[in-house]
Amino acid sequence: MTPHTPYITQWSGEREPEFTLIERPGRGIGYLNETLTDRDDQGVLWFRTPNRPAHGEPLFARVHPLRQRRAMRRLLCNVCANPADHTADGTLWLLRDFRDDWPGWPENVGAIEPPICVPCVRLSTRLCPALRRGAVAVRVRRAPIAGVRGALHSRGPSSEPHPTDDITVTYDDPRARWVRAINLVRQLQECTLIDPADLCRN
């Protein structure tokens, strides 16, 4: 097994099997041979990526849908899958630093990265190329599940719907019925920014 592979990383041996998408009148999209596990508790359809960690090579640019969803729901560390760090100031997230992109970031941001534990902050800031370009740790007091990110589909010229865009939608958005989800989204609220170096010194 490749060392230091994050829990939510997809592996090359976890290729999605072939499938057929259909339109379900009044309900959006669905699989032709759909099962109960294909949808979450809000009725949104999800990718069918097999859960076979450590099979093949890690695909660091890809996130495994089921493991990402599990880590987000249970507030597990996205690297080691242990409980994320939590104090009176909130749950710990480690994010790319986008403070220059819009005022107030990361307040009310829709995060697709699950939280993290303190030991994995040290590891991630050292090994992750994206985070080496600029990272910030955030204590989050409230992080309600807000929706999903995935492939938006529309009716095609044939009977099979086809993907048209990658979007993030709230669960109450009518387009959610036309999304095949790959990420669960939490909205970060009541955020306090921390320099990751301060955590690494403790």
From TrEMBL:
Superkingdom field: Bacteria
Protein name: Uncharacterized protein
